[in-house]
Design goal:
With 802 residues, this protein is an alpha/beta fold. Helix content is 34%, strand content 19%. It binds one RNA strand of 82 nucleotides through helix 7, strand 11, helix 10, strand 15 and strand 25.
RNA sequence: GCUGGUGUGGCGGAACGGCAGACGCACACGACUCAAAAUCGUGCGGGAAACCAUGUGGGUUCAAAUCCCACCACCAGCACCA
C-alpha cells in the first residue's frame, strides 16, 4: 500500500492558506453568525513548545475549523504574553535585552505553531510587551485609579538582602532560590487593585457562565466568602480591638485571644506589654516566614503571650490572656481571633502547646477532652448550648442569631462578610513589565500621567537587574524618573514599579477584536461583535488567578461602559496536562521533552494532531507516547488509500456506519470528546475496509469528518478526487432514517446476570420479547422455579428475577 | 492541613445506572514476500470450569466502574481564612 507524503502536502496547503488569507476574519460577515474560540496565549519561554502544549492548540483548532465548516464566522486568534520574569532572567543570564530574548522566543513559537497548520488569523497577532499594546494596559490602569480602585498600600513582600524583592516562586523553604540566603517578609508600599470590591459579583455572576463545574467551585472557594460577626473586645489596658468570627455561638467558650504578631493590635498594646523583648523576638521570627509557611509549615502552633494585658469577653466580663500567634494573618479579617479550644481544633492544639487550661465546652453532644468538637460536627445536628448564661438550652442555629442580635443591639458587634480573596498586588520591582503610569509630586501627591502622554515606555538600558535595596531597576535611571508634575508643573518623580505579568493578559482577548485600533483599546462595535468569548481554553493553574483577574477587569470595564458584557467568557475548559512517556512532567532536565517539529518531520502535523486528540480524555492527564503518532499516521494512510476503492454510487451497506459517524463525531467535538470522535472514525474506517469500497459522496463526507483534526490531508484528498474547493464544503448532516434499526440485539439477564443475547424487532412489545427469551436454552437453564418479576427496559435489557 | 481532581487488562483508554474492557498500542498467528519492513486479516482480562474481575470496605438497586457512606493511594493548586 502507498503511503502519503505529509511534508509535501502540509507545506503546500499551509502556503495556500496563507496566500488566500483563508483564516483572516472580518468583524462582520453578512449572513454568518460570529463565534469566538480562544486559547490562552503562550508565554514565550526560551524552551519553545513541546508536544504537551500542542494538545490544546490542535484541539481548539479542531473546534474552530468545525465551526467554520458549519458556516460560522470564526475568530481564532493568537498572540504572546511577553512580559514576565522568565524572559528577564534569561536576558540577564545571556547578557542580552529582554526585548531581544522575547523577539527570538516568539519567532520559535510562531514557527512551531504554524507548522501545526493552525487556522489562526495571524493578522490579529498581539504582543503584550509592544508599546502599542501596553499603552492601553496603562490607560486601563488609569481608569482603575480614576475610579478609586487603585491605591498604594503597605504590603508584605519577600525580601532577600542580596537580591532584593523576590517573587513567591523565587523563594524556596524560606531561602532565596538565586543565592540561597534566608529571606524575610518586609513591608513595602505597593499599588493594589481592589478586586475584593467585586468579590460578591465574581461569585454571583458565575451563574451567567457555562464554565465546567469544578472551575466554578474552585473560584468560589478561592474567593471564600464567609458570613460572620465582627465583635469589639476591650482590654485591661484600655485599648480596644475587634475580632472576626463565623462561630459566634461559641463566644462563652473563649479562654484566650490570638492576634497577628505583625498586626496593628500588637503595636497599639506595646506600651502595656511587660515582656516586649520576647514579643519583639517572636515578631522577627515571624518576618522570616511567608504566609504559606505560617499556615502550612507551622504545625507547632508557635506563639507568645502578651503579658501585662488581658482581654475582656464582652458577654460575661471574663478576663482572658492575649497571645501573638503567627497562624493569625494581619491581612485577613481584623488580624485577631477569639480562641475556643473546646470547639476549634487549631485553638485546642494552641492551648495544649502553651498550657492554657480550663477549656470550656459550650455546645453539647461531643467529647472535648481529646479533640475539639467543631462546627462541621455540631452544625445542623440540633445540638444545644451549655454554659452560656441566658443562651443555654438554645439550638446552635438559634443561638447564633440571638447572640449576634444581642451584641449588635449593644453596639459592640456588626454582621460582616469576609473574603479569603485579598486585593490584587499590582506592583513589581522589576524591569520587564509595563511601567505604572503615575507621577509623584511633593506638593500634589500621586498624579496620573495624562492620557495623551501614554504610553510611558520602558527605557532601553544596559543594566536592568533587580535592585538589592528592593527598589525597581527603573529607579536608577534619572532620565526616566525625573519629570514634571502634570498638576502643578513642578519637579516630580515617576513611579518606577512595573505591572505584574497578569496585567496584559487580563484584557488581551478584547484587543484581538480590534488589534490595530490606535484611538481606543478596542471599538465598541468590535467588542459587541465578538464578546462574550464562546469557548475559552486554558490551564487549570490559571483557574484562580488569571481567570479571576480577567473577569474582574472586564466587570470594571463593563461598569464604566467600555465592555458590552457582564461576563467575558461564556464557557471555560481546561485541558489535562501531557506528561512525558515516563509519566512525569516534560522538562529539559529530565530529558523527556518531545519537540513537535521532530514528530512533524517524521509523521506530519496531521498525524500529530490526530494522536493528540486520540490519546485520552481531553480533561485528563495523559502520557506522551511515540507509538501513538505512528498509529495516527496509519489511520490517515488508511483513509488516504480509500481513494483506490472509490465507486460512483453510495454503498448502501455503509449508510449506517457513515451516518453513525457523522452523528457521533459532530456531538463529540461539540462536547470536547475528541478521543471518542477519533475512535469513531477508526471504527468507520474498519467498516469501509471490510467492504473494501466506498461511494464518492460518502467518502467526501467521511473526509470532512476528519478534516478538523487532519486539515491538510483532507484538502489534498478533495483536490485529488475532484470534490471541489474544500472551503465550499459544508458539514455533513445526519440522515436519521439510515440509523433506524429494525432488529436489535438485546441482552437477557436472569437475576441480574447476562445469560444470553437475543435478536428481536426494535419495536417488539414486552410480552413478545419475554416469549422469545424464554425459548432460549441458555436462559431456560437458569430460569428455575417461579418467575417473580420481569424487568424490560426497551432496547436496553430484559431481566428475569426467579 | 485546605481546595480541586484521579484510581478500569501488559499499556493509553471506552462505557458514566443496563452485555465492563469500544477504539488504539504492544504481543501472537495467518496472508503477501526469496526475506524483512510496510500492508491486509484473525486472536488477545484471569480461570479447566463454576465463576472471578473497574483502588479497599460497606450501602442503595432487579441491575453499580457509574449513585451514597467510610477508608487508602496518587496528581495538581494553595494564603491554617478563624
Amino acid at each position: 500500500m502507498k503511503q502519503y507524503n505529509p511534508a509535501e502536502i502540509e507545506n503546500k496547503w499551509q502556503q495556500k492558506w496563507k496566500e488566500e488569507k483563508r483564516f483572516e476574519v472580518q468583524n462582520h460577515q453578512p449572513g454568518k453568525q460570529n463565534r469566538y474560540v480562544l486559547i490562552e496565549f503562550p508565554y514565550p519561554s526560551g524552551k519553545g513548545l513541546h508536544t504537551g502544549h500542542v494538545r490544546s492548540y490542535s484541539a481548539m483548532d479542531a473546534v474552530a475549523r468545525k465551526l467554520r465548516i458549519q458556516g460560522y464566522n470564526v475568530l481564532f486568534p493568537m498572540g504572546c504574553d511577553a512580559f514576565g520574569l522568565e524572559a528577564e532572567r534569561t536576558a540577564i543570564r545571556e547578557k542580552k535585552l529582554p526585548q531581544e530574548i522575547v523577539a527570538r522566543n516568539i519567532a520559535t513559537f510562531k514557527k512551531q505553531l504554524q507548522k501545526l497548520g493552525l487556522s489562526v488569523d495571524w493578522s490579529r497577532e498581539i504582543n503584550t510587551s509592544d508599546p502599542d499594546y501596553y499603552k492601553w494596559t496603562q490607560w486601563q490602569f488609569l481608569q482603575f485609579y480614576k475610579h478609586g480602585l487603585a491605591e498604594k498600600r503597605e504590603m508584605l513582600v519577600n525580601y532577600c538582602p542580596n537580591c532584593g524583592v523576590l517573587a513567591n516562586e523565587e523563594v524556596e523553604d524560606g531561602k532565596c532560590c538565586q543565592c540561597g540566603r534566608d529571606t524575610t517578609q518586609k513591608p513595602k508600599e505597593q499599588w493594589i487593585l481592589k478586586i475584593t470590591n467585586y468579590a460578591d459579583r465574581l461569585i454571583d455572576d458565575l451563574a451567567l457562565t457555562n464554565y465546567m463545574p469544578h472551575i466554578k467551585t474552585s473560584q468560589i472557594n478561592w474567593i471564600g466568602r464567609s458570613e460572620g460577626v465582627e465583635v469589639d473586645f476591650a482590654t485591661t489596658a484600655g485599648v480596644n480591638f475587634s475580632i472576626f468570627t463565623t462561630c459566634i455561638e461559641t463566644i462563652y467558650g473563649i479562654t484566650f485571644m490570638v492576634v497577628a504578631p505583625d498586626g496593628k493590635i500588637v503595636k497599639e498594646l506595646k506600651p502595656y506589654i511587660t515582656n516586649w523583648d520576647e514579643v519583639s523576638e517572636y515578631q522577627k521570627q515571624t518576618a522570616k516566614k511567608s504566609d504559606f509557611m505560617r499556615c502550612e509549615l507551622n504545625k507547632d502552633k508557635s506563639g507568645v503571650q502578651l503579658k501585662g494585658v488581658m482581654a475582656i469577653n464582652p458577654v460575661n466580663g471574663k478576663q482572658v490572656p492575649i497571645y501573638a500567634g503567627d497562624f493569625v494573618l494581619a491581612s485577613y479579617g481584623t488580624g485577631a481571633v477569639m480562641a475556643v479550644p473546646a470547639h476549634d481544633q487549631r485553638d485546642f492544639e494552641f492551648a495544649a502547646k502553651h498550657n492554657i487550661g480550663g477549656n470550656i465546652q459550650v455546645i453539647s453532644g461531643g467529647d472535648v477532652t481529646e479533640h475539639a468538637f467543631e462546627k462541621t460536627d455540631y452544625l445542623g445536628k440540633g445540638c444545644i448550648l451549655i454554659n452560656s448564661e441566658q443562651f443555654t438550652g438554645q439550638i446552635v442555629e438559634e443561638a447564633k442569631k440571638n447572640i449576634t442580635d444581642y451584641l449588635v443591639k449593644k453596639g459592640i458587634a456588626r454582621k460582616n462578610q469576609n473574603y479569603r480573596l485579598s486585593d490584587w498586588c499590582f506592583s513589581r520591582q522589576r524591569y520587564w513589565g509595563e511601567p505604572i503610569p503615575m507621577v509623584y509630586c511633593d506638593k500634589c501627591g500621586w498624579q496620573p500621567v495624562p492620557e495623551d502622554q501614554l504610553p510611558v515606555t520602558l527605557p532601553i538600558v544596559d543594566n536592568y537587574e533587580p535592585d538589592k535595596e528592593g527598589n525597581s531597576p527603573l529607579a536608577r535611571i534619572d532620565s526616566f524618573v525625573n519629570t514634571t508634575c502634570p498638576c502643578c508643573g513642578g519637579v516630580a518623580k515617576r513611579e518606577t514599579d512595573t505591572m505584574p505579568g497578569w496585567a496584559g493578559s487580563s484584557w488581551y482577548y478584547m484587543r484581538y477584536c480590534d488589534p490595530n485600533n490606535s484611538k481606543e483599546f478596542a471599538s465598541s462595535d468590535a467588542l459587541k461583535a465578538w464578546l462574550p468569548v464562546n469557548l475559552y481554553n486554558g490551564g487549570n493553574e490559571h483557574t484562580t488567578r488569571h481567570l479571576l483577574f480577567a473577569r474582574f477587569w472586564n466587570k470594571f470595564l463593563f461598569d464604566i461602559g467600555l465592555s458590552p458584557v457582564k461576563e467575558p467568557f461564556d464557557s471555560r475548559v481546561s485541558q489535562g496536562i501531557v506528561l512525558g512517556a515516563n509519566g512525569v512532567k516534560m522538562s529539559k532536565s529530565l530529558g523527556n521533552v518531545v519537540d513537535p517539529l521532530d514528530v512533524i518531520n517524521q509523521y506530519g502535523a496531521d498525524a500529530l494532531r490526530v494522536w493528540e486528540a486520540f490519546m485520552g480524555d481531553y480533561f485528563e492527564t495523559v502520557n506522551w507516547s511515540d507509538d501513538g503518532t505512528k498509529s495516527a499516521f496509519r489511520l490517515l494512510n488508511r483513509i488516504w488509500n480509500m481513494k483506490e476503492v472509490l465507486v460512483e454510487n453510495n454503498v448502501t451497506e455503509l449508510d449506517y456506519a457513515i451516518n453513525h459517524a457523522i452523528k457521533k463525531v459532530t456531538e463529540d467535538i461539540d462536547n470536547i470528546k475528541f478521543n471518542t470522535a477519533i475512535a469513531e472514525i477508526m471504527t468507520c474506517t474498519n467498516e469501509i475496509y471490510k467492504l473494501n469500497k466506498i461511494g464518492k459522496a460518502q467518502y467526501k463526507n467521511f473526509v470532512t469528518l476528519i478534516s478538523p483534526f487532519a486539515p491538510h490531508i483532507a484538502e489534498e484528498i478533495f483536490e485529488e478526487c475532484g470534490f471541489g474547493e474544500f472551503k465550499d464544503q459544508t458539514w455533513p448532516t445526519v440522515d436519521e432514517s439510515k440509523l433506524v434499526l429494525t432488529q436489535i440485539e438485546l441482552p437477557v439477564q436472569v437475576n441480574g446476570k447476562v445469560r444470553a443475547v437475543i435478536k428481536v424487532a426494535a419495536d417488539a412489545s414486552a410480552d413478545e420479547v419475554k416469549n422469545i427469551a424464554l425459548q432460549v436454552t441458555e436462559v431456560l437453564k437458569y430460569v428455575t422455579g417461579d418467575i417473580k418479576k420481569v424487568i424490560y427496559v426497551p432496547k436496553k435489557i430484559l431481566n428475569f428475577i426467579v
